[in-house]
Amino acid sequence: MSLAGSWRAELRKLLLVLVASGALGWGTGYTLEMLCIGLSVLTGIWLWQLWLMRRWLEDPEQAPPESAGIWGLVYDTIYGLQRENRDARGRLQSTVDYLRSSFASMRDGVLILTQSGVIEWSNNAAERLLGLQYPRDRGQPVLNLLRWPAFHEYFLKGDFQQPLQIPNATNVRQIIQIEITTFAGGDFLLFFRDVTRVVQMEQMRRDFVGNVSHELRTPLTVFKGYLETLESSELFDDPRFRKAAGQMDMQVQRMENLLTDLLWLSRIETVSEDRETSAVNMVAMLEELREELDSSHPDRLVVVEVQSEETVLGNYRELRSAVSNLVINALKYSDDQEPVVVRWEREGDALVLSVVDSGVGIEEQHIARVTERFYRVDESRNARTGGTGLGLAIVKHVAASHGAELTIDSELGRGSRFSLHFPQL
Ligand code: ADP
What we know:
Layout: H1 3-28, H2 31-58, H3 69-104, E1 109-113, E2 119-122, H4 124-130, H5 142-145, H6 149-157, E3 164-168, E4 171-183, E5 187-194, H7 196-231, H8 239-270, E6 278-280, H9 282-296, E7 302-306, E8 312-314, H10 316-332, E9 340-347, E10 350-357, H11 364-367, H12 379-385, H13 391-401, E11 405-411, E12 415-423
Parallel strand pairs: 7-9
Antiparallel strand pairs: 1-2, 1-5, 3-4, 4-5, 6-8, 9-10, 10-12, 11-12
Helix pairs in contact: 1-2, 7-8, 8-13, 10-13
The chain binds adenosine-5'-diphosphate.
């Protein structure tokens, strides 16, 4: 029966009771009394239905009470809503179970922390990697259980842009990478990954490049020595040999530059953890660099614009090599008549070193890749300029190890601006 139909039936029932009890009362001379009795019986029936409903709602697993009319309809409606609710809860629960089991089966350790750093949940891999136990450790502050000082510092600092790599406290030969993200208004999601193999491979790669470069230096020095001796002999008076000697000289020089850059890159990568740092006076360094360039590039103009006297905390040699690479590139990739401007200034919270040229510029699609090792925009041009293809890789590495950011603004045919942004300490 429809809702309107049920209400009509209920009203008819009320009317029937009123008419029947009124008629009975009129017949017996007790109209008011009979009406009261009739209404009381009806109220009693409704109260009974309410009591049945309450009993059923206390234990909704039971089937709803059997009833016709408006009460039956109310039971059906409540029952339908309950079933929908149960289905929705079931679906939600299975989604939660699904997500949990996928997190639980991840190879990376996963920890969920509340805003106050207390463990809410952890997966099996976290137990294996970190020696935690769930649910035993639920409710424990994470800093009480993971006692690595570097992790404490990282977690309390709250800057999670870069992951943290540290030796595992339970197995120092294992390197763990920790990544933290915040979610749900401040809770923490922590991923712990065993990166021992990756770190070892990276170390092997560095050692290999370093060793090969080192080993190649000796034969190259011998070769260069003999070449110089031969060049001063009569044999090289012959123009054919002279040309060949010139070529050999140039290639030996290129190889020497390459080995120097490779060795330097592998050195700065290796010592990045415990390099010597001091307050580097950038103004003095730029002056020194300009003097050096005046003698190595006497026909070029390098303008140094100093707008700040502030120093930078870092390694002098590394910073100098980065700035010198940028300036030499600016000279290499611009016309002889164009000056190169080197600027040291404060921009908001950062100290910025920029090298600006009005040279060939770089096409948009190459900009993101020029800091890769050996990436060159134009091979033919580079063969002429004699670069190693490692200059910007060195600059990028030095920037990263000094917490600075390298930005490149360039327009083809108009020039480039390479800037190092040092955050204020
Ligand atoms: P290279 O030794 O070839 O100069 P770098 O790593 O220093 O190697 O630079 C990579 C490439 O980026 C260069 O080959 C060049 O194509 C481009 N590049 C670097 N600096 C500039 C600049 N100031 N203007 C235009 N192109 C540049």
